[in-house]
Amino acid sequence: MIREGLEVRLNDKVAIVTGGANGIGEACARRFVDEGARVLIVDLDAEAGARLAGELGARALFLAGDVTDKSVANEAVRVAVERFGRLDILLANAGIVHAASFLELEETDFDRVLAVNLKSYFLFGQAAARRMVAQGDGGAIVLMSSVNAVLAIPDQVPYVVSKGGVNQLTKVMAMALAEHGIRVNAIGPGTIATELARKAVLGSDAARRKLLSRTPMKRLGEPDEIAKVAVFLAGDDASYMTGQTVYPDGGRLALNYTVPVDD
After folding, report:
1. 137-185: per-residue pLDDT in tens?
2. Does 214 reside within a domain?
3. Rounded mean pLDDT of 3-24?
4. 3-class SS at 33?
5. Which one, of 226, 193, 237, lies nearest residue 27 by Cα?
6. Quick check: 141 and 93 in contact, CB under 8 A?
């Protein structure tokens, strides 16, 4: 539902959100609709995606599909344009993790994570940009990176590598598409309170305390706090920004010491 009594920043814009059925993607889809956008949610989780689109109403649509498949990227653009008339925004957010030591990591798991976390961003970015170029009036692409594009976690090899690639993809896409009026930026969250984070790094109280000891603000981020950054980067308020990664991380990247965490 569009926010009443407030200026909306994405009024009548059309957006595609990949990995939009849960977590940060869900929060972004909700916030985009609140800000006046019409949104096509793309996700492999058909049940959650259809439920979210139904909840968001006529301004949202769901497409079930594997984001690593080029035909799904092309279909998403086609459906968005067919249903809503154009395409203004892409948020490439789909992501997975796989924990394993470097010496034990299987090639198939490395490839699987990079396919979702990096290759799909290229596929959707290319498909969306081609449509934006054809429309002739620019657009905005936002890629979901991570503080782990810069910081490494020893047992998250493919995730760390994929997010480093996202930062470089952001830069090269921004340079390639600037002449067409298409801005490309990325968001690099710290640890956000999603189901993915709980499974990956919050498996015990000790793990939680260790994580918070590295976070000066001493709390996890909330999905909607990332969604607000996505709205900013997708909208006209960021009209002179391209090729940048913004880090809403509770101060983690600036930290060179640990902080005490209360029991």
Report:
1. 999 999 999 999 999 999 999 999 999 999 999 999 999 999 999 999 9
2. no
3. 88
4. helix
5. 226
6. no
In a domain, 261, yes or no: no
- How sure is the predictor about 258, in pLDDT bands with cuts at 50, 70 and 90? confident
- Count: domains in the chain: 1
Tokens of 260: 């005490």
Q: Would you say residue 208 lies in a domain?
A: no
Distance CA 105, CA 63 (A): 32
% residues pLDDT > 70 (the chain): 95
Percentage helix, strand, coil, to 5, in the chain? 50, 15, 35
CA-based nearest residue to 158, from 211, 108, 208, 214: 108
228 domain residue, yes or no: yes
Give the number of other Cβ atoms within 10 Å of residue 98's Cβ.
17
List, edge to edge, every strand of the sheet that includes 89-92: 60-64, 38-43, 14-18, 89-92, 139-144, 182-187, 245-246
> Left if phi > 0, otherwise alpha if psi is -120 to 50, otherwise beta: which for 19?
left
Reported pTM: 0.94
Residue ranges with strand state E in 58-110: 60-64, 89-92
| Known catalytic residue at 121 | no
Residue 117 token pair = 């976390």
Residue recorded with tokens 């470097």: 102
Question: What is the CATH classification number for the domain harbouring 87?
Answer: 3.40.50.720
Distance CA 163, CA 168 (A): 9
- From the list 121, 159, 240, 257, the catalytic residue is 159
Q: Which domain holds residue 44?
A: 14-192+222-250
Model pLDDT for residues 77-91, shown as the tens digit of each residue: 999 999 999 999 999
CA atoms within 13 A on the CB side of 209: 7
